[in-house]
Design goal:
The chain is an alpha/beta fold. It contains two helices and 18 strands.
Length: about 160
Amino acid sequence: MKEAPKGWHNHSNGGGLVEDTAKVESTAYVGESAQVYGNARVSGSAWVSGSAQVYGSAQVYGDARVSGDARVYGNARVSGSAWVSGSAQVYGNAWEQSPLYIQGTRHALTNSRKGYIQIGCYEKTFADWKKEGKAIAQKEGYTPDQIKEYKQLIDLFIAIGK
């Protein structure tokens, strides 16, 4: 295990570095060269690994994962079964309320960012889903009932997201 820089301590369950004012609670894991500092909190079964950083007043909890070179900071919250990886950045007060997440019959829908919906691996603006959603669903082999279900869910996301 590498030596922690002054003001840091090695988190016992994974070797990641946690600054004294940050908290890692429950069965949360901070490993490899990951860093958690500032007033950040990692709790529940959350996992921070690779060279990821969680700092400021950010919180990562539930079964969330932050890995690679990802950064979660400011007042950002990553929770549930969300994954933040690669060189992604989640920060600030982007949402006045938590983003909406609904599990449909085929794929989950989530507000991936303001004005956007992600369904499966497709992320589109509200307007693009209204325009292209049916064609995408048909291409992906959705049944007519599923197409109707997802149209209603897209309309719900748009109504809540305005």
